[in-house]
């Protein structure tokens, strides 16, 4: 019958009385230190305890020990290190776990690095967008005839339930429009539609000329907002955002 796990003892070393620093009266004895350990499939997994066998040097028979000798041997045992081989099975078992933990830590480190890089990129993009928005707002506040407004539009198509009632909106295609500033006053700017995509198929009609306030244009300088540059058909709506403003130096 094969024993797959259990405990076993192996002799570590045999000492003389001089090697252990014992009295001359123990000169006829030899001292054997054993390591007891738990094993799986005969592979040491972890140490349990150490113990001594004291034998007659001539007959090799085990002899009894007195309290004084046991005390001295216990002191010697406390100074002896546990042999590394007693942990062989533990190292074998723990290696795959450490490998998996290492992989997890590596993936975590890479993920943190990627997140940090994305965060830095996001901050840089935000700074760049903020700068562009500031430039756009400045051009709106200080307009010149001939300014070209590149405006993005997203159609908001109404959704209907099974009874034909309106139930919110769904986003349509994103379109890119171009308007030219034809005139302006303190309170308003007049934009003329100069370019629409050839594939434009929104369910609404864009106004050729539209008068809007500078304040309304500023609201769409950094995000999509409603701005009535169109006439609705079948309830469709749209949101707009200024992509950029081009100004030709005079």
Description:
- Keywords: Membrane, Transmembrane, Transmembrane helix.
- The chain crosses the membrane at residues 33-52, 84-108.
- By secondary structure, the protein is α+β, with helices and mostly antiparallel strands.
- The chain folds into 2 domains: 5-82, no CATH class; 143-246.
- Helices cover 29% and strands 39% of the residues.
- It is built from 3 helices and 11 strands; from the N terminus they run E-E-E-H-H-E-E-E-E-E-H-E-E-E.
- It has helices at residues 67-79, 88-141, 214-219, and strands at 5-15, 29-40, 43-56, 148-160, 166-184, 189-195, 204-206, 209-212, 225-226, 230-232, 237-246.
- The strands form 3 sheets. Strands 8-6-5-4-11-9 form a 6-stranded antiparallel beta sheet. It has a 3-stranded antiparallel beta sheet with strand order 1-2-3. It has a two-stranded antiparallel sheet with strand order 7-10.
- It is rod-shaped and about 120 Å long.
Number of strands: 11
Order of helices and strands: EEEHHEEEEEHEEE
Number of helices: 3
Q: Average pLDDT across residues?
A: 85
Q: Which band does the percent of strand residues land in? A: 35-45%
Query: What spatial form do the alpha-carbon principal axes imply?
Result: rod-shaped
Helix content: 25-40%
Q: Based on helices, strands and strand pairing, what is the structural class?
A: alpha+beta
């Amino acid at each position: 019958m094969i024993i797959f796990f259990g405990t076993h003892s192996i002799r570590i070393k045999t000492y003389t009385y001089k090697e252990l620093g014992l009295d001359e009266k123990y000169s006829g004895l030899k001292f054997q230190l054993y390591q007891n350990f738990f094993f799986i499939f005969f592979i040491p997994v972890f140490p349990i305890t150490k113990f001594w066998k004291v034998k007659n040097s001539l007959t090799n028979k085990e002899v009894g020990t007195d309290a004084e000798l046991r005390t001295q041997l216990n002191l010697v045992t406390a100074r002896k290190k546990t042999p590394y081989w007693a942990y062989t099975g533990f190292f074998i078992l723990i290696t795959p776990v450490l490998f998996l933990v290492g992989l997890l830590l590596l993936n975590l480190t890479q993920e943190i690095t990627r997140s940090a890089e994305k965060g830095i990129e996001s901050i840089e993009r935000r700074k760049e967008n903020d700068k562009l928005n500031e430039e756009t707002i400045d051009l709106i506040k200080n307009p010149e005839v001939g300014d070209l407004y590149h405006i993005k539009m997203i159609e908001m198509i109404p959704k209907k339930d099974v009874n034909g009632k309106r139930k919110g909106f769904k986003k349509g295609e994103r379109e890119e429009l171009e308007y030219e500033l034809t005139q302006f006053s303190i309170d308003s700017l007049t934009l003329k539609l100069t370019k629409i995509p050839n594939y434009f198929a929104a369910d609404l009609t864009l106004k050729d000329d539209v008068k809007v306030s500078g304040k309304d244009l500023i609201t769409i300088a950094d995000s999509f907002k409603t701005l009535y540059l169109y006439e609705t058909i079948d309830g469709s709506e749209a949101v707009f955002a200024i992509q950029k403003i081009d100004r030709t130096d005079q």
